[in-house]
Amino acid sequence: MATTTADRRMIKLAMSAPYLEREEEQALAQAWKDNKDQEARNRIAMAHMRLVVSMAGRFRNFGLPLGDLVQEGYIGLLEAAARFEPERQVRFSTYASWWIRASIQDYVLRNWSIVRGGTSSAQKALFFNLRRLRARLARGDAHLTSEAMHQEIAAALGVSTADVRTMDARLSSSDISLQAPISSAEGESGGSRLEFLTSDAPLPDEQAVDSIDGERRRHWLHSALGQLNEREMKIIRARRLTENGATLEELGILLGISKERVRQIENRALEKLKAALVSKTTDFAYA
């Protein structure tokens, strides 16, 4: 009730602010621009608070407090007052409308849902116009299917039908906390939704062990490879350490030896690696 009373008081104050004639408005704007006269800027802003209240009222269907919408609109109004150029001979209300609307829309997008949406200009247009267009299409043709309605809205706003479908689903439902309890048919609490979320990813301690063990194994392998001579290293790299290993025949031609000799060298190199790795693991076990 206190918030409602405050809102009414604010609206009453805004509606009682005196209008400015064009000449007076121009003089105040010029005083702000030339001399940074704060009083002149504040008078311009207060004279147009009714515009803020009127525009804030258009966004009440998003479920946000009117007082917060008015405050955000007032921020846009002050920004417009600071940027207004009187020499353009445009009424301040015309110029300020864009800033007020933009400030309120940004606030709605940031606070309407936990999930941020409408980051692009097309998405913003979809967010703020979807309900209006859907209602208008429904009045024009009561038998229009949802898919046909989505297609017409997509064409009107220049977005994809999938975007319209997704936004329509978001606007038709509210956020649900994962911490909220789930009630059974008998009215008993069955835990929270968070408890039913599963993940195939390893647990944090398993990830830490895999990272440490993986680094240790890489170090052991690098050390073991140091036991091989140049030709053994070349064969092991070509045969075992590449995605598409070379054949014995290909390596035989490359090294100028028979494929049987390549096989023998490979087996000897693998025995060296095995011995070196066994030695490392044994040393680690007794460390």
TrEMBL record:
It comes from Shinella fusca. One of its GO terms (biological process) is DNA-templated transcription initiation. Residues 68-81, 247-273 form the RNA polymerase sigma-70 domain. InterPro entries: RNA_pol_sigma-70_dom (IPR014284), RNA_pol_sigma70 (IPR000943), RNA_pol_sigma70_r2 (IPR007627), RNA_pol_sigma70_r4 (IPR007630), RNA_pol_sigma_r2 (IPR013325), RNA_pol_sigma_r3/r4-like (IPR013324), Sigma-70_Factor (IPR050813). Sigma factors are initiation factors that promote the attachment of RNA polymerase to specific initiation sites and are then released. The keyword Transcription regulation applies. It comes from the Bacteria. This is RNA polymerase sigma factor. Belongs to the sigma-70 factor family.
